[in-house]
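[job 0412] stage=fold_complex status=start
inputs:
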Amino acid sequence: MTDERSLPVKAPEVGRLLGVLIAHGVDFVLIGGQAGISHGSSYPSYDLDVLYARDHANVVRLVAALEELGVRLRGAPPDVPFVLDSKTIENGANFTFVTPYGDLDVLADAAGMPSYEELRVDAVERELFGHLVRVASLDHLIAMKRAAGRTKDKLMVEEYIVIADEQRRVEEGDDE
Amino acid sequence: MAKPGELLREARKRHGVSQKRLAMRAGTTQSAISRIERDKVSPSVETLRELLYLLGEDLVLEVEERDFGIDRTLNAERLKISPTRRLEHGMAFANQVIANSPLPRREAW
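[job 0412] stage=fold_complex status=done
writing structure:
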């Protein structure tokens, strides 16, 4: 998702990006590093990754949200034509964008994920910046990070396992 | 961690039993034992348990918590604050890293 040898000029404004997606009624699940952070991870993340439902009505809503965000393709030469409409999104799958509010990755699928429906069902609903957001479960994040397989992903897998363990301890009231 | 083949071979040699004799005891072939010992095939836990039993050994499986080398303090603290606060911390941390990193910057919007 993020190019590991460069950094964006700033971290994403998570609340702003999520707010626009929610305002347009986009069916999505937050994944990636920001999802991990919301679960308690301490690894920084430099973009916002979301998986979106592929049905036409949702793609139309997604396009409206992306238009409002003023997205541009990330890393594409300026002369590469990009028409932001539902046809483009439906003909493609995964898009990496730069926005005035930071980098946004909009994905139809990611390695290690189950079906979108399964991911959505197991996601946890969290209030983030005043919005109710579906966040991929720690277990699915572990599967996706495991499939991604980069060094940083492997480190995150281990941390996510520890977090799941800590969450269980908190839930069981075990402070030892 | 020892591989199944290594466990079996060491146990067999400890008892001075040839692959052929172990195969006879187990009702299998010498080549099957050989494949296991060379880790060409991965035996089920039950198969390994049976072969070791036939050598007079018990297979003891243990599970122990892995030491990731991760300091859990930070994660435990993060769980005490709201998910939004966690993300705010995350953004601030990411911006701090970006400000201090020698890595090239990607294009701005």
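[job 0412] summary: Chain B has a mean pLDDT of 92.
[job 0412] exit 0
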